[in-house]
Structures
1.
Amino acid sequence: MDTNIFRKLSYGVYVISTWDDGRATGCTANSAMQITSSPATIAVSINHDNYTNGCIEKTGKFAVSILSEESEPSIIGTFGFQSGKDVNKFDAVKYSVEDYMPVISDSCGYIVCNVIDKMETSTHTVFLGEVVGGEVFGDKEAMTYAYYHKVVKGKSPKNAPTYLPEEDEAVSEEKAVRRFKCQVCGYIYEGDELPADYKCPVCGMGADKFEEIK
């Protein structure tokens, strides 16, 4: 089976958030979709290993912040490559509480849901939520996973439903540019040299976390 066919499906880039005993927490996701229009319901897929999964289970609520093409890539790193069990992720981003839920300010907008059902798979929980609130933040284009992959040059966290083991692409002889890969999030830096003070735009790691792709 050619697993690359999954990349032909349409995905966005979202931050799924909720509360952890009064503390805002969340994770990135690229599997969120509207299931029905009346009443409006949304389904999100969250890995069992994500700390956010258990928090949604306890609160019975979640919010979907829809990231835009203009959103800071570091938001994806903050919520996708760290655990809310160990880090207060919302300390690193601007957010507001809308419809009683924490949402990312640097986004297209948000949707707030009450969990009404769920389905368990071997690795993920699919939470079905009835929409109880939502708002659009300005006129921005939603970031797709394709845009994130091709333009931001980021990779899916290993807990993401769409994660596929990546094969390093061979560098053609015509393109004499060096490529350095972040060992935390998979971001690829291209250039003659990797600056010593370079910081990954996705996860914020320093140059010591990059390895040259031969």
2.
Amino acid sequence: MFNSKIIGLGKYLPKKVVTNYDLSEIMDTSDEWIIERTGIETRRHIVKNDDDTTAVMAFKASKIALQRAKIKPNDIDLILFATLSPDYYFPGSGVLLQNFLKIENCPAMDIRNQCSGFIYALSTADQFIKSGKYKNILVVGSENHSGGLDMTTRGRNVSVIFGDGAGAAVLTREIDLKRGIQSFSIYSDGQHALELSLRGPSTNRWVPEILEENNPDDTTYYPNMNGQTVFKNAILRFSEVIQEALDQNKWSVNDLDLLIPHQANLRISQFIQKKFNLNDNQVFNNIMRYGNTTAASIPIALTEAWEEGKVKKDSKIILAAFGSGFTWGGISLIW
């Protein structure tokens, strides 16, 4: 029997820093308004003349993760690529990353579960490793939001939230069952699917149809979010999967060394921290610097926490995410 464990982490953020003051120059908003509602101060964006794409950012983060894992690209048996912003409608970004890494005949799978995509991908990797099918798996979350946001006052409730970036993790077998991933829980509730969505272009809203209408007020090709509904469901589902992880492992709140939530909104993280009576050292947040990077947010945050020495041998860690679908999930692991 095997557990799966993370042996290498990497992250990549675009160079362009966009502050709240920058946004206030192009839309009716302010630094105070954004911080009060989201906690975000800056985020990273890709500009049009940059070479970065969703797959390129994933490649840059993956190279770092592989170096830290001390394995070569050809040692990877499977790539799992979590994103809501693939380079193309098809093919998926996983095969593009495989090509950048020059890995021959390696299966690559795109995971389209938005904010909880990295949790779903880690859970999938865990099962492939535990089954004995694969030994080394590269799990990536990468997002390029900035090119598809409505950067006007009309779209400010969504556009001020999101940033770009990528994070990567290399997983391998662990024979010590007291280490590595200990449990996971993943869920979905499709009745709320359109509360956080991008409806066009899609097979329900093809590009020719949009172009024929030539309607400047058509916002279906921008992300749409019912903020209050998302917030209420997020705090409920975050709480459930965190408690489930604690219960599955018979951990108390005091046993938990680090909670790394999906960086959706600092107010959600603060609510969860207060509800579970966690101290500041037990929760890692970086949304203030990067914004919401969706599937990339947990691997970026986990990498940063590890780089800052907050993730140590024997650390008990819970990762939790909630997002579009609605989908949500949690993972517990011992470093």
3.
Amino acid sequence: MKKVILAFAILLGLTSGINAQITVQHDTVGATYYGSALNIHNPISTTSATPVVVRWSVTNHNLPADWMTFDLGICDNQLCYGSNIFNGSTTQIDTAKNNKPIDLKLAINPGATNGSFFVSVNIRDGVSTNKNVVFIINKWPTGVSTISKVEDDVTLYPNPANDNVNIVFDGGLNVKNVMVYNLIGKPVKVFKVSGNSAKLDINDVPSGIYFVRLINAQGQIVATRKFTHY
């Protein structure tokens, strides 16, 4: 009887380990550079009482070359990894445990190039979680009065794009529709959205240059972005 109970306890422990799942706080997180180095945090947590092995790696980014020579890296609870982590060939390992989340963060001090850029990181536990999260970094020219704070908070990626375009915007814009137009102003796609982001399926759109217009509940265009579909 004791052997049966012991076997059951071991099986229960293994089952709880198999069902352990990590949670990433945000699918997309970002910040705008205003002259000070940035630390963009996206914690990873779990409710498991035993350690869960977490693997993460950079899968894609569009950071300009001059940013790669400045202070740049991704940190977890164990180490900070420099710009070599962005070559896509290295996977780092850390462990998460109940009440001990992994503070995954992008640490960056941008170079001279201005624009909106992203870093995509794949996070997995080898059991039930395998997802990509995106860090977004905006850097705009100092003193440019034609770019409003609201406009700063609209990011489109990747660009150029293939099957999908992601767009993230300030929730205060109250965006209800996103429309894709070609160069002659003809609408080719309309998407209804909620929240502060949208994934636009452009797989059936011919290759070319397009504009994305964000439209609020009153039918007003609150932001426009351009992208290339290849």
4.
Amino acid sequence: MNDSVLLIEEKESVAILTLNRPQVMNSFNFAMLRALKEQIDALRFRPEIRVVIITGAGEKAFCAGADLKERATLTPIQVKEFIFTIRDLFMCVEQLNKPVIGAVNGVALGGGTELALASDIRIAAETASMGLTETRLAIIPGAGGTQRLPRLVGRGKAKELIFTGRRVDAQEALSIGLVNQVCAPENLLDECMKMASMICETGPVAIEQAKYAINYGLETDLNTGLAIESNAYWVTIPTQDRLEGLAAFREKRKPVYKGE
């Protein structure tokens, strides 16, 4: 087994980041948080990478949240640092200028579910289970769960899941809109790559601006959101990619986008 807490693989314009602590269900310690943050920050400035997939090593877990054995050794100040670090990381994931697909390959609890929530698209294995279980430890979700979950599944369902600390299986996650798709475990990465390949056929600047418009527009009233959308659209107008898209349509061929 590779000793790195984060494995990195690149293929077909896609970066696959694998949380690699399977012996502790890929739970987050400071080392893993910092390794993932370093990669996310680096990928922002790599235009040849169009999509990022995040998954977990092994068959049991995507990520079981914070490493509670490490947590037990931390001072209150260090706990605050941990929460700040993980919250900042997930904001960087959410605001990355390219799509992030969460490949939920198994158990995703606490911070694991919060990482999935910070991703743009979530595809889960049939064996996956998810939950914000923090209240069962007499704390609350601290890496965005109280904010992102209700925005995704609605206020009432989010309160039910957070107040009870209940886990949901993959099918229930799909039915409430927590994940986009469910598939057999052995097909998970293939399905994520299919999604990524479809995204890679589109215009890079358009994807970046669409993500920006959706993320920021949802936090405002409709008129402000429409203004954000208009400004994002204006960014795409002078691009070579837009002209290439029109030419390809006219010539009945696949466009070749360069992100320019």
